[in-house]
Every structure is written in C-alpha cells, then in structure tokens.
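Protein 1 of 2
SEQ + STRUCT:
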Amino acid sequence: MTKYLGLHETLDIHELLTFKNLCLTKAATMGVLATDEQLKNILADDVKTGTKHILELKQFITKREDHQ
C-alpha cells in the first residue's frame, strides 16, 4: 500500500494548514490585546491546541515513507 497522499489530499491539508495558521495568528494577537483574564486564558488554550494541530497536520505533508 502506498504511503503517499494524492494531490487533492495534499491540497486539502494545505487548505487546513492555512486556516489553522490564520486562526493561530488571530488568537495570539487578540490574546495580547484582551483585558479579561478568562478571555486571555481561552485564547492561550486556543494558541496551544492550534499549535499542536498545525504540527500534526504538517506531519502528513512532510512525513514520507517508502511504499512496500
């Protein structure tokens, strides 16, 4: 079985990465501007989980294994 992604799958992951990066940038920026502590905590959690999700998505594009 091939371990490579098809072109449409790669493009879908790129689209998800673009969206997640935009969300991460917005949450990080708004976290600095927020004055409410509860909102700051929510945005900080979103930054942490967003970063984790981006790293996981990047593995699909960068992790290439030989097919057998």
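Protein 2 of 2
SEQ + STRUCT:
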Amino acid sequence: MEHIEQLNYIKSPVDKVYKALTSEEGLKQVWTSILKVKPEIGFINEFDFDEGYVTKMKIVELEENRKIVWECIASDEEWVGTGISFELLEKEGVTTVILKHFNWKKKTDFYRWCSYNWAMFLFRLKDYCENQR
C-alpha cells in the first residue's frame, strides 16, 4: 500500500485549524464550495468537485483539536477504500498539521497528482487560518 504524507506549519491556534477542517465554512474556503459537512463520527461528508461524481468521506475518528480521520466510501476509483487523516499539534502559537492519505493500492500518476493537490490544500488551509478575520 502507498501513502501520501504532507506537513505544514500554521501560525494559528489549533482550535481554529480544527474548526477549519471540520466545518462547512472552513472546508468551503480550502477545498470545494459544494459540500455537506458535519463534525460527527459516522457522518458522511460530501464534496462535489464538479467532476461528475460526489466524493463521500465517512468520519471515523474525531479528537477535538488533535485528530480527524475520514474513510473514502465514494469518489474516484483510486480513492475508494483509502483513508485521510489530519493530525494537529500546537506549540507556541503554531499548529503543525500532518496530512496522511493512506492505503492507496499503487503509485500512479493520479496518486502523484493528488500528492501535489494535498500540498496545495495545506497551503490554502494555512492562508485561510492565518488571514481569516
């Protein structure tokens, strides 16, 4: 199995970063504007990227201000069955975000493209959390 891992440092309190990753307001700013999100274990978040299908992520773990884990149950064929986690740690006003997209069946061009896009996701998350008024 293959895994994507990305890391970013955000000059923002961990609770603000956690809220951005678990709320419609935050995820609209950093991922897609067409979505249904609820911070509740078992809830199935829906993300529409206008690609002819809806990406569905089941929330399997939530540790407030520490960890979020999703299981992909519907999306592009290569995503189904993978998991995505966000691990958060705040130190001296800076939140470290470790993003992992795990259990890929193999390394493909789509995998590589997604790795790039996850880095861009973390860049937008950083920008949103640090510059939101």
